[in-house]
């Protein structure tokens, strides 16, 4: 079994092709940022934790954000550097060992990043690091996959809080399994509390007719993701 870092070393060259149908402008720019506005988001500096190849950068850059990115995978960071050059400062960092990079108005970690934190205490350590990088009044945005997602992508008998194998593949890359962990809503709330974060919203997210719908109450069966908004 290869780990997440090794998996994304293999996937990096084909990652953007593999995820080309993901509309980050619609998802982050038109859905998530307006949701953050409801909680007093201030435009300024943003830190993308688990930024990968920078798929979430354009919606932020086009809206005037000063952006910084980091990821566990050197190969994914290399792909991001090829696209964005010196526009976005980038670092190879483990979310569980996040140093102080600055005082950010927004820290975000999207699209499965936290599902890779499978060992006890991993999620809490990552949230503490992200909290440390929040400036006064800053907001944290992150998501995780739901139980329904795991039952569709991995194990039809998946149970809450379990760890499961999923398969990633890209053109020219042999499909290979890797592990992700499911988190229940109480686990997420407890982890935020342990990290001394206030949970402002725990939302359900699902795709309907090519669009994204957020619901005030997350449903592990109906929704694809749980989206959390938190503050110090």
What does this structure look like?
- This protein is α/β, with parallel strands linked by helices and 232 residues long.
- The chain has a single domain, classed as Vaccinia Virus protein VP39 (Rossmann fold).
- It contains eight helices and ten strands.
- An eight-stranded mixed sheet has the order 3-2-1-4-5-10-8-9. A two-stranded antiparallel ribbon has the order 6-7.
- The longest helix is centred in the first third of the chain and has 14 residues.
- The N and C termini lie far apart (37 Å).
Indicate the radius of gyration in whole angstroms.
16 Å
Helix content, binned percent: 25-40%
DSSP E strands, number? 10
CATH class: Alpha Beta
Question: Biggest sheet: strands side by side, in what order?
Answer: 3-2-1-4-5-10-8-9
What letter string, H or E per element, gives the SSE order? HHHEHEHEEHEHEEHEEE
CATH architecture, by name, is 3-Layer(aba) Sandwich
Outline the biggest β-sheet: 8 strands, mixed
CATH topology category name: Rossmann fold
Distance between the termini: 37 Å
Mean pLDDT comes to 94
Structural class: alpha/beta
């Amino acid at each position: 079994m290869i780990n997440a870092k090794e998996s994304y070393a293999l996937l990096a060259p084909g990652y953007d092709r593999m995820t080309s149908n993901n509309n980050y402008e619609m998802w982050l720019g038109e859905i998530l940022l307006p949701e953050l506005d409801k909680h007093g988001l201030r435009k300024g500096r943003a830190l993308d934790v688990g930024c990968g190849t920078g798929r979430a950068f354009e919606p932020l850059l086009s809206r005037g954000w000063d952006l910084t990115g980091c990821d566990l995978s050197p190969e994914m960071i290399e792909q991001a550097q090829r696209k964005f050059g010196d526009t976005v400062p980038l670092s190879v960092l483990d979310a569980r060992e996040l140093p102080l990079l600055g005082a950010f108005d927004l820290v975000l970690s999207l699209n499965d990043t936290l599902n890779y934190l499978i060992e006890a205490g991993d999620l809490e350590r990552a949230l503490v690091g992200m909290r440390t990088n929040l400036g006064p009044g800053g907001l944290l945005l992150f998501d995780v996959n739901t139980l329904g997602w795991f039952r569709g992508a991995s194990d039809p008998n998946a149970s809450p809080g379990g760890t499961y194998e999923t398969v990633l593949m890209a053109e020219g890359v042999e499909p290979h399994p890797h592990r992700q962990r499911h988190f229940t809503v109480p686990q997420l709330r407890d982890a935020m509390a342990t990290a001394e974060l206030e949970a402002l919203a725990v939302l359900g997210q699902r795709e309907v007719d090519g669009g994204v719908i957020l619901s005030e109450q997350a449903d592990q069966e109906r929704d694809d993701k749980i989206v959390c908004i938190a503050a110090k």
